Amino acid sequence: MSAFESPCLSIAVAPLLAAGPNNYAIWVLKAPSPGGFVHHDCVWPEPLTQTWHAWQEMFSLRGLPNVPRVSSVSVSPLVELPSLDANPAAFPPQQIGLTGRLMQHLGTSLWQWLLGGPIQSSFDQSQGIAIGQNKPLRLRLEIRDPDLVALPWEIMQPQSGKQAISLSQQLLFSRTTTAVDPLQPLRIEQSLKILLVLGQDVDTLTGNSGPLRASGAVLQLEQEASTLAQVLENCCHPESMTSRSVIPVPCRVDTLVQPTPAELTQHLETGQYNILFYAGHGTPAPDGGLLLLRSDTKMSGTELAQVLTRCRVTLAVFNACWGAQPDHDGEKAIPRSSLAEVLVHHGVPAVLAMRDSIADQEALSFIQAFAQALAERVPIDQAVAVARQHLLTLYKFNQPAWSLPVLYMHPEFNGELVRPVEEGMTELPTNPSYGWQHPVAALRLLGSTTRVWPIQGGLIRVGRKGENDLVIQEQWVSQKHAEIFCRDVFAEGAVVPTYFLRDFSRYGTLVLGPGGWQKVHHQEVPLQSGTQLKFGSSQGQALEFLIETPLIPDDV
Asked: Which of 35, 90, 365, 366 gets the most CB atoms within 10 Å of its CB?
C-alpha cells in the first residue's frame, strides 16, 4: 500500500472570541468524501480544565503552561475520577491505579470534546471509507488557539480500554498547520541520510544541563554522538528487521558536535540529508525557540528553517526542551512560536519534537524503534506510532513517556520518506545472486535523444506533483498519475523480470498497441520495449518505454 493513497481527515480548532470566553469552533478542513465537511461550535468545559491541571501536577516534569483562558479556575488538587472500566480490553486494575485512570480520563474527555456532535459522524464516515479501502486513515489536527497547543492531544481515546489515537497504525495521527509556505519538491529516496547534531554540553537526550543530571557528571559528547550514530546505523541492518521479507534501506549517519551555524549550514548544503536529528538544549522564544549549539552560540527556529527548506530536508527530529511548546508573553501563549510549528510554517515537511523533558533511556528506546520503522520503509506518521507502542510496552500506559513525542506534518505532505516496496513488486539489486542482470529501462520523449528519464531501482512514478520521478505539467495529468515498475514473472519454468504500467489517474493512460491507442484506467498492463505512452489525453506528449539492456543470464 502506497502512502500516497491513504484517505485523510483534517480537523481545525479555533476560538470564537465574539461568542465569549471558552467558546470554540471545530470544523473539518479536509475529508475523503463531500459529506464529511461539517462544523461544530462548543464550549470548553470547566471539568476538563480541572482534569488537565490534575494531569499536569502528576505527570509534568517541569510544570507545563496552563490553558490561560481557563487557568484562573480554582482547581481542587484531587479530581474525581471514574471507576475502572469493566471492558476486558482495558489494562488490569493493579497495573493502572490512579495514574492510569487519570491518563484515561483526560484522554476520553479530550476525545469527547473534539469529536463530539457532527464531527463524530464525519470521523466515522472517513474511517469507514479507509476500512473499505483497506488503508489507514490519516487524522490531522490543527490547533489555532496557542493556549490549547500544550495539551496532550496524542492521548485521546474513544473510551477506557480503547487504544489511544496516536498509538494506532490504522488511524495515523499528527498535528498540522495550514499557515504554511508551499511544500518544495521532495527527494523520495532509497536511503536514510541522517545528520546527527549534538548541541551545547548538556544531557543531549533529555535537554538537562550537566548539574541537573542525577549523576552530576558532564556528558561526553563525542561518546554520546558515537553511541547514537551506532544505534541509528544498526537499525538498518537486515538482521534487525521485524520481518525477513522486508528489504531494508541503507543508512548513512554523519555527526556534528557543537557546530557553529556556518558549519551546520555547510553540512546541510553539501550532504543531501533527508533527516536532521538534533540532541541538545533548547529554550522557548517567539521565533521558534533557540537551539544552543554551543555555550556562546544560539540558532533560532526561523534561522534553521531557511536552511532546512533550501536543502530539502524532509524530517527534523529534536530531543530538546519544549520543542513542541509555544513561547509565552506573560501568561499568554504566542501563536505559532514553537519550534515544530515554525519549521512546518516555513515548509519543512515533518517535524518531531518533545512536549516535555524525556529521560535518557526512554529517548534512546524511542529513537531506536522509530529509526527501525523508517528503515523498513514505513511512512513517518506510522513510524511514530510504532515507536510510541514500543515506549508504552517498556514504560507502561500509566507513564507519560509514550505521550511525549509530538509530530507535526505539512498539510501537503503524505509522510513518505523513502520509497516503499509496493505489494507484489520485487526490487532487483544491481548484481542479483540468482543469475539475471538488472534490466536497464527508461522513458524517452518521442523524437528526442536528450529527454530521457532512467528507471532506477525498477520503479518510476509519473504525475503532476513535484515528488514524482517524472513530473509532467499538463492539465490532464493527475498529481499521482501512474507508475512503471519491475516484477518477477514465472514463464516456462523460468523467472523473468518484466516491466508493468500501473495507472492511478483520473483520465487514464493511453498505450499504443497493434490495434491503435488503448486506454488503461486503474489497471495494470505489461510493457514491451518500444511501447508508446500518453498520460491523461491523446493531446499529451508521447513517451516511449525502452529496455536498454537485454535480459541475459550471467552464465550465458
From this structure: 366
Contact 344, 351 (CB under 8 A): yes
Q: Please state whether beta strands 251-257 and 171-175 pair in parallel, antiparallel, or not at all (unpaired).
A: unpaired
- What sections of 248-379 are H helices per DSSP? 261-271, 301-310, 339-345, 360-375
Q: At what angle do helices 380-395 and 360-375 cross, to 10 degrees?
A: 140
Distance, CA of 487 to CA of 24 (rounded, Å): 52
Q: Give the pLDDT score at 490.
A: 64
| Residue with the larger pLDDT of the pair 295 and 220 | 295
- 346: cell is 516555513
Cα–Cα distances (Å) from 525 to 181, 288, 511, 535, 549, in that order, read 39, 49, 9, 14, 21
**CA 268 – CA 195 distance, rounded (Å):** 8
The vertex-236 CA angle with 233 and 238, nearest 5°, equals 130
Please write the tens of the pLDDT for every residue from 404-432: 999 999 999 999 888 765 443 333 333 33
Going by C-alpha positions, the residue among 276, 303, 277, 304 that lies closest to residue 204 is 277
Crossing angle of helices 301-310 and 261-271, rounded to 10°? 20
Q: Tens digits of per-residue pLDDT, 309-321?
A: 999 999 999 988 7
pTM (two decimals):
0.71
